Automatic annotation (TrEMBL), chains A, B:
The gene is ano10.L. It comes from Xenopus laevis. Pfam families: Anoctamin. It is found in: Membrane. Belongs to the anoctamin family. The keyword Membrane applies. This is Anoctamin. The lineage of its organism: Eukaryota, Metazoa, Chordata, Craniata, Vertebrata. It is a multi-pass membrane protein.
Length: 652, 652
């Protein structure tokens, strides 16, 4: 491991700085000393047995500590969190310290066996699991109550004594990664394994999905091109295109499941046992006994939560949906006005004016989405969910419902109420392109520019300090602590999800959408990479075995797309022409085709195995081995224990 | 435990007879002695450490052995199979012999702790797991090859040396059970827990499901009555009925999942870890190495199996479906002829003739279903699936597809092609009632009568034998070994599934179907009980946590029912009357309602948790405890091992 040291450190405090803890300026010395002792204490005394030291700054009232751990401590921590590593025989197994020599990357001294991201994850796990024993409150703060088993770090953060805990970047590795990832201009895949190595599974999976999704859109884009240029408006060709799209979207989602299981098997997270989920930091309630763990913890009645959800959240979401529809109607008024203006003037300027309402509406949609998301977070937090996963599910559901209505309702209205396919095409294009440009700007370029400006200031400030510690480390920590915090992949997946909606919902009307989506994703890859490497603090790595609830969201969108595309086809003038004499036959035919396509989707999803054969064999092998070990254990017991008894029965 | 003893037994061979092994008449003595030795041998020598003795019969050339085990051997076996038992504190935990005093039903000597069915399951498990070591073939039969790890019992059965292995009935317990179950005429629930105690989880679940399904049909039947008597033919009322039915069928399936998890938690099978699945007895191939277990076993290429499935089985099923449709067309010809005859004659006799085609068709359907099932079994067996579960899935799929088409195609044809609702109602009624009567007769009453006749013969024959062993036991074994073998719950679930189809697919046309279904189920309960207790050999108890693939089948039927009912409603003359001016509006409305109902079904299924809160808490608690135990283990390791290393780092 590379060791970044403060020059003046005594040799016993030499360790690689991994995680930074920043206290509030008002944090009392008593509290800080207590925490430092807790962190250094032996595991058996209730400590976390890690290494910690303050960052010495002469002229500033900031309390910053850096945390690390001895190599052996981290390796034992890897066993505790259940990290999975590759063995010499090529199989993946949970790391066990005593069997360390069986693992592939093990070297004599164990350095470099764990990646820096893994070490930081282990330290985060250990800090989060530092629990109060007999303390009644945080020393120095009588109002910050503690009870046995309460996570100390969570209490410190919720009571505002600690500002943040974040992992440090590894400047050298980051430089190499950036070079491979986006600095060279090249046509090649992203270095997914290196991204995972540096940022962890969640981000590795996101970038892999982004890349995969882009590749998967290319066939759709290519097939769409001739439709656009030759204006193939005949029935057969559209049916072929729509059918291809619907089957294709099912197949790519199924194939993704297979690919992602190959990746997460290689990374170990597919096998990693999930940890028991603790209450989320913001959860509050009256102290009681948890029926599952038997531990003291805040209890909040599920009935009250249901009341909050059904009496406040659901009505709130409905009101927001109504507002979104209201805004949509204003947009149609504007559109109407612009059309009237153009018909009156017939100038080049007035023909440009035609696009203005759509552009304004696209901007308004973006703004509404962002405001709504903040409201949804507040509301979901107020619902007081006990588990982070349940909080996330409720948040995702709220945000998805609103985003779908907000982004697609105008298109649905144009398609199925106004039945104006020309306007649909135009609106779709404007919405798609405007939202893409806005997103890239707001998400990556703007923060990148702000970040650059502030980092120049900090560099100057750090230079003016007169300190004797390691200059590079000091500058790095000061730069990184003021960076924005990356709040997870939610927004990134949401963007892809909406894009998938634009592409699939109306694909038979606007085949060109896939091309824009591909172009967007190509730039998205670069701007997201820039964002992760230059704009945000390094996030803690998180093990994850799949993309979770987003898979469900994409699959649901695929089903809705079948319904919309079939209806659009049925409404097209070409198809109506075929069934000129009987509307009833037309609609029955369309309904039959729709049901057949839906059935085909389900059968495809059912028939394609979620995991490739070789991964399945490896998982089965792992399970078999653990069952065999259990059986051997019992056989040994049987041989040794029951002998006397059975001998008696048979020989007496 | 009750001990049934042979009078002349030496005291060291006193044990309760649990399982009977019957050899073929040609079985060589060498082979039988080798097997007896294997069964008695110590576990460490590759035996199964059980007790076995021959049943001595003087004048007959039959080789029958009875198998049992010492109390301690069976308890250790319970630990090996992972049996789950209730602890004193009310929680369910896998049985561990060393902690035996923690379990609720534990008495001083451990008698009665395991039920007879559990003991028989343990013995079956141990016998099935008796594996060849260095034997190259079965002694005495050079052509019956063995290889290390091959199950000896499976080879003995496939090569015809052993005829059968079956568990004995417990006459006293069976008498009590029969009395509680069906001998008293009463209006009460079935003694499900006693059924599970005697027959095991699979049958316990089946009878519980049968009862639950009957109860769940009662509201549908009650609501259907006024529709029938008052001939409520107006739109609103039908829509209400159909909507109620569709929502109801979703709710009852979801509630069943909850109820079944409560039951299987109580029985322990919800928690029981599934065992590693061995190849099924009939599986054959070239000897190779299994990639999962690393053991020698027959290997059969998956590609060849796929070829057999797609090139033979799929075409075969298609031909059968075609034949079924052909028979259906003959039925319509007959129907046509009967109608013409009636119109010509106009007599009472000719009006009875009207029902004849339907009745003949119902009988033909039953016959075709039974023949097809035999063919499907042969074909699926020929496909050479490695695992029993995969064999079962392919068999279920084949049989379901054919049964659905065979039973319902004529109804679909009448409803959607002929659009004759009166004929639909009449056909539905005739099919439903005829198939019910046929089923009860063929499944229970006929075998019961045959069984009674043959048992009289056997009793006479046994009386004529001049033997000195326990007379009762000898008679019991001779009676039971000639009884039919119960082949599992497949046919019973299939019958319920088809019934569910008759009730739900056309519910808005024939509300009375639910009443017939309820009546059928009430008699079905009694005839199935009779069948299990009197007609068939006792089946080996099988742990199972739910009704498996049938849940999926019922849910699929529920989805198809939404489509058929919506279409039927849309086609009814009342509804058409409302949308007189626009067929297009009519069909769009129906399609919208259909999609809304489907969405409602999915949301309901998603919102209703599959397990009740308290069961979920108990499962979580179990998981939490095992994670905590693991963690404690690691902490101990950390405290003892890493001290030296960390002390070095901190103090040096």
């Amino acid at each position: 491991m590379r060791r970044l040291l403060s020059k003046s450190d005594p040799p016993d405090l030499e360790f690689q700085p991994l995680v930074v803890i920043e206290f509030a300026k008002h944090a009392k010395e008593e509290t800080r000393e207590w925490l430092v002792k807790k962190i250094m204490d032996k595991k058996k005394d209730g400590g976390s047995q890690l290494l910690i030291k303050p960052l010495v700054i002469s002229n500033d009232e900031e309390f910053i500590y850096i945390v690390g751990g001895s190599a052996k401590r981290l390796l034992l921590g890897a066993e505790a969190v259940g990290l999975v590593k590759e063995c010499i025989d090529g199989s993946m197994k949970p790391f066990i310290y005593n069997n360390r020599k069986e693992y592939k990357d093990w070297t004599e001294d164990g350095d470099d066996f764990l990646s820096m991201a893994e070490c930081q994850y282990i330290i985060k796990y250990e800090l989060d699991n530092l629990r109060a024993q007999d303390e009644k409150n945080i020393p120095g703060y009588p109002n910050s109550k503690l009870y046995p088993g309460k996570s100390i770090f969570r209490r410190l953060q919720t009571s505002g004594i600690m500002i943040q805990v974040f992992p440090l970047h590894d400047k050298e590795e980051l430089k190499r990664l950036r070079h491979q990832w986006y600095l060279r201009i090249k046509l090649a895949f992203q270095p997914i394994d290196q991204i995972q190595h540096y940022f962890g599974d969640t981000l590795g999976l996101y970038f892999a999905f982004l890349e995969y999704f882009t590749m998967a859109l290319i066939p759709m884009a290519l097939i769409g091109i001739p439709y656009y240029f030759f204006a193939w408006e005949d029935y057969d060709k559209y049916v072929i295109f729509a059918t291809f799209n619907l089957v294709w979207s099912t197949v790519i989602l199924e194939v993704w499941k297979r690919l992602s299981s190959v990746m997460t098997y290689r990374w170990g997270s597919l096998i990693m046992k999930r940890q028991f989920e603790e209450p989320r930091p913001g959860f509050h309630g009256v102290l009681g006994i948890n029926p599952v763990t038997g531990r003291k913890e805040p209890i909040y009645s599920s009935f009250k939560r249901q009341l909050r959800i059904y009496l406040v959240s659901v009505p709130f979401v409905c009101v927001c949906l109504y507002l979104a529809s209201y805004v949509m109607m204003i947009y149609f008024d504007l559109e109407h006005w612009a059309l009237a203006y153009h018909q009156e003037q017939q100038s080049t300027f007035s023909s440009l004016i035609l696009y203005v309402p759509s552009i304004i509406y696209a901007v308004v949609i973006e703004i509404m989405n962002r405001i709504y998301k903040i409201a949804a977070e507040l509301l979901t937090s107020w619902e007081n969910h006990r588990l982070e996963s349940s909080y996330q599910n409720h948040l995702v559901l709220k945000v998805l419902v609103f985003n779908i209505v907000n982004c697609f309702s105008s298109l649905f209205y144009i398609a199925f109420v106004m039945c104006d396919m020309k306007l649909l095409r135009q609106s779709l294009a404007t919405l798609l392109i405007t939202s893409q440009i806005l997103n890239q700007f707001v998400e990556a370029l703007l923060p990148y520019w702000l970040q650059k400006r502030s980092s120049r200031k900090i560099k100057k400030k750090v230079k003016s300090l007169n300190v004797d510690t390691d200059y590079t480390l000091l500058e790095q920590i000061h730069l990184e602590k003021d960076m924005d915090t990356y709040l997870g992949t939610f927004d990134d997946y949401l963007e892809l999800f909406l894009l998938f909606g634009y592409v699939s919902l109306f694909s038979c009307v606007y085949p060109l959408a896939a091309i824009f989506a591909v172009l967007n994703n190509l730039t998205e890859m670069y701007s997201d990479a820039l964002k992760m490497c230059r704009v945000y603090k390094r996030p803690f790595s998180q093990p994850s075995a799949n993309i979770g609830v987003w898979m469900l969201a994409f699959e649901t969108m695929g089903i809705i797309a079948v319904v919309t595309n079939c209806t659009l086809l049925g409404m097209s003038s070409q198809v109506s022409g075929i069934f000129e004499d009987s509307k009833r036959d037309l609609i029955l035919t369309v309904a039959a085709i729709e049901h057949a396509l839906l059935a085909l989707k389900f059968i495809l999803a059912f028939v394609i195995p979620d995991k490739p054969y070789d991964i399945q064999v490896k998982l089965d092998r792992l399970e078999f081995e653990s069952l065999e070990a259990l059986k051997k254990n019992q056989q040994m017991k049987l041989s040794s224990e029951s002998l006397t008894d059975d001998d008696d029965a048979m020989n007496s």
